[in-house]
Amino acid sequence: MEHRLADRAAHAALSLPDAAFAAVAGRRPTIDGQRLSPRMQFLAKSGRRALATLADPPTAGQLMLFERLQRAAAVDHLGDAPSRDLMVRGGRGQRRARLYEPAGLPDGAGLAVFVHGGGWQVGSIEAYDGLCAFLAKTARIKVLSLDYRRSWEARFPAAFDDAFAGFIDAVDRAEELGIDRDRIAIVGDSSGGNVASSVALRVTDPRHRPKLAALIYPSVDHDLDGYESADLFDAPLNREIVHRDIRRYAPRESDHSDPRLAAMAASDLSAMPPTYIATAGMDILRDQGEAFGERLIESGVEVEAQRFSNLPHGFFGFFVDPKARAATEEIAIAIGKRVCA
């Protein structure tokens, strides 16, 4: 109960009118023809400060801060779809997962296997509870949110291994879960998009191949050089934070060219399923996500890419901001349309 009250209080503060954030947002420069709202500018800068001091492993207070922000932004959607917890296969033993099942779905519904973001360090099933319920209700599919080992619990390739095993298990248990095994997507945001892209590339058995990979501002290349957006934007992510997070997840330099860590490192991308890529217009990772889409097209993969201008990294599920809410809804509808087609 105490957590819920705190989440509601945080939600109320985040939902204040944009004008309330103007005094604390600081200068809002126009970059690449775009500009953040006062609310998003304040949160992007605050997020950068919090991320810059993230310990390895994160402290209990740091974990709670990031969880509360994610939950509070989506607290109004916690009841969008009933959910139940279950166990799925992981890279080592069983892992927890949460299945969201909106009312009124037909037999043989589609499924999105969801891999949450958080720089491989923060985030959880609970933090993404409201977003996953919203995704299930809006896309008219079931959603299976995976728990995976974060970088301070186990280094690369632990997160990949857990997500890969969890996805395969979901497909194998399609009848038990009440889904159509031919209508299963893998979805992830940020570092979750990193893991999801690598899993989608790695699942080559036609019996398990995803119908769709949906990647929301994914990290797909460990090397930021050569991407203009890496020099344009620095909040909430900047070069130092991105490089640090990659090193924490994969300390060995030799792993940085492994496609399980960076899908762009793969010499052949033709095994990827149809892919939907959503990028944030004011995000350091924007251009690498779009370049990944271009490489997929060159490899003969069906791709739809959408750039959501005037939004920063992390907007997905941030329902207290009108632009972020509209973008999240558009992404959810796009995923549902492709999974159910």
Short description:
This protein is an alpha/beta fold and 341 residues long.
Describe this protein's structure:
The protein has 341 residues and is α/β, with parallel strands linked by helices. It has a single domain (2-340), classed as 3-Layer(aba) Sandwich (Rossmann fold), CATH 3.40.50.1820. The chain has twelve helices and eight strands. The protein has helices at residues 2-14, 18-25, 38-52, 60-73, 129-139, 158-172, 174-177, 191-202, 229-232, 239-249, 286-298, 322-340, and strands at 83-89, 94-100, 109-115, 142-146, 179-189, 212-216, 275-282, 303-312. It has an eight-stranded mixed beta sheet with strand order 1-2-4-3-5-6-7-8, with helices on both faces. Helix 5 (129-139) crosses helix 12 (322-340). It is globular. The N and C termini lie far apart (41 Å). The relative contact order is 0.14.
Q: Count up the helices.
A: 12
CATH topology description:
Rossmann fold
How much strand content do the residues show?
Answer: 15-25%
- Overall mean pLDDT stands at 97
Number of domains: 1
